[in-house]
Amino acid sequence: MTDTAAQRLEGLPVRDLPGGRRMFSAEDRRARMRGLAGLDDLPVNWALHLAPCRSIHTVGMRFPLGLVWLDGAGAVVRVDETVPPRRLRTCLRARSVVETRAGEASAFARLVAGEPASSVSAQQPPGSR
């Protein structure tokens, strides 16, 4: 039986954001190791924050991710709007990352960092679709 996102993230610390969005935090080793791998989907308004983190992989993912890379002060340093399964992404300027459903990273970036929409730009990594 496959976990649902609710089952997987249940019990993790959560930060409620405007617009009904929720950001869960994987703070212990077990939560970080499980991450979102193996889930069939993630609700549009949910995200998982991994800290510290400068690199992620999408091996075992069944859906593409959006990534919001944050520096040590919580400012957005990069947004990857769509990262397909079986990929590796690194951001050396980052100290943590917020994983979202593909297409939702920019919306979470504006809410997490509290920055105006115009200051956050999505990046499409080379070679990804």
What would you say about this model in short?
The chain is of the alpha+beta class.
What's the total helix number?
3
Structural class: alpha+beta
CATH superfamily: Protein of unknown function DUF192
Strand content: 25-35%
Terminal-residue CA separation: 30 Å
> SSE order in H/E notation?
HEEHEEEEEEH
Q: Which sequence of strands runs across the widest sheet? A: 1-2-3-8-5-6
Query: What's the architecture in CATH terms?
Result: Sandwich
Give the helices and strands, then pairings:
Layout lengths: L4 H5 L4 E4 L3 E6 L2 H6 L11 E5 L4 E3 L7 E6 L5 E8 L4 E3 L5 E6 L3 H9 L16
Structural write-up:
The protein has 129 residues and is of the alpha+beta class. It has a single domain (5-115), classed as Sandwich (Jelly Rolls). The chain has three helices and eight strands, in the order H-E-E-H-E-E-E-E-E-E-H.
What are its keywords?
129 residues; Jelly Rolls; two-stranded antiparallel sheet; 3 helices; 16% helix; disordered C terminus
